Amino acid sequence: MSAFQVAPTLSNPAAPIYDWGIRVIESFQELGIPPVDFSARFFTLLGEPALYLILFTFLFWCINERLAFRVGITLLISTGINLAIKETLAVQRPFYRKPGINLIEQSGYSTPSGHAQASAAFWPTLLHKRNARPWRLIFAIALPVLIGLSRVYLGVHYPTDVLFGWILGAIISAAAVYLVPVLRKSLSRLVASRFTTQPALPVSIKIAAVALGVWILNTQTNGKTGIGGAIFGFAAGFLLLNNASDGSKRFSAAAGSLGKKALRLFVGYAGLAAIYFGCSALFSLIANEQKSLTQFIMFTIAGFWMSNIAPKVFIRIGLQ
Fold it and tell me: Can you list the domains of the chain with their CATH numbers?
């Protein structure tokens, strides 16, 4: 076992923390009246990856592509960090320590909670706005809290998993909202002052930087390269979409009627489905040893479709 791995065995120094976590889960489940049980299952569904995919693609294709990119890339990076930490720590879920404590089925490692971290990264980033109305702040805090607590109640995470996830998600969201804009402005001023003929970084340099970050991430995820592929495809596609120099029409998510936006969603999700099923069928013929590579390719194509090819298709077929 790696020195960085933590397994919930009785000899482990963390065992008292896990035992306390089991007691907290049992205390939560003693509240198992139907409304509480239903609420827990409902809020855990709000933290599922499929819902986030629907939300940020809807934003990207129909509302505000720049906001959607910021929210989407924040979520993807958060998910990648979560996966890397889970694979490094390798903490088994509570039901490995006490079988039957889980009320739903869940695979993968436990620490930190992906649902808690994703919600704490996604919702504050999405709802942040200067001089925002109180409801934005309430939702930005309440949704991650309820989603995280639902994971404890359902017995698939220790309370410490959820707390760890909230902290990481909040840090990532704060960086996306406050730190990244400052760094972007500082870098732009630096480039403009040093290179008068090149006022901005070439898109090729930006894509290379993304590729380097994804490569580093993939070295830490134990062969699970899908999220790295999604980050690379989505980021590269958006950078190229906004770097068009051929005079072609730029994509605007806000443009178009409700009918056109509905058709965008149909075409966009149909494309994603075609990529998933087509790649799955094709890659099933390839040796299992190449699974990491094929997974990376499939998710790269899907990310690139979302942020580049689909918007261009929308323009080409008159949906903008």
Answer: 21-200 (1.20.144), 202-320 (no CATH)
CA distance 44 to 38: 10
**Does residue 112 have a cis peptide bond before it, meaning omega lies within 30 degrees of 0?**
yes
Distance CA(199)–CA(190), nearest Å, equals 9
Burial class of residue 234, CB neighbours in 10 A (0-12, 13-18, 19+): buried
Rg (CA), the chain: 21
Nearest Cα neighbor of 78 from 297, 231, 206 is: 231
The set of residues, in sequence order, having a beta carbon less than 8 Å from that of 30 and lying 6+ positions away, is none
Q: What is the DSSP letter of 32?
A: -
pTM for this entry:
0.87
Q: Residue 169, exposed/middle/buried by CB under 10 A (0-12, 13-18, 19+)?
A: buried
> Helix, strand, coil proportions of the chain in percent (round to 5)?
70, 0, 30
Residue with tokens 């960090």: 81
* DSSP state at residue 128: -
Q: Would you state the torsion angle of the CA atoms of residues 208, 210, 216, 221, taken in this order, to the nearest 10 degrees? A: -140
Going by pLDDT thresholds of 50, 70 and 90, the confidence category of residue 287 is low
First-to-last alpha carbon distance for the chain, in angstroms, is: 55
Q: Do the Cβ atoms of 82 and 220 come closer than 8 Å?
A: no
Residue 294 CA to residue 231 CA, distance in Å, equals: 15
Amino acid letter at 169?
Answer: G
How confident is residue 246, by pLDDT bands cut at 50, 70 and 90? low
Phi, psi of 287, deg, nearest 5: -55, 145
The Cβ-side half-sphere exposure at 118, using a 13 Å CA radius, reads 24
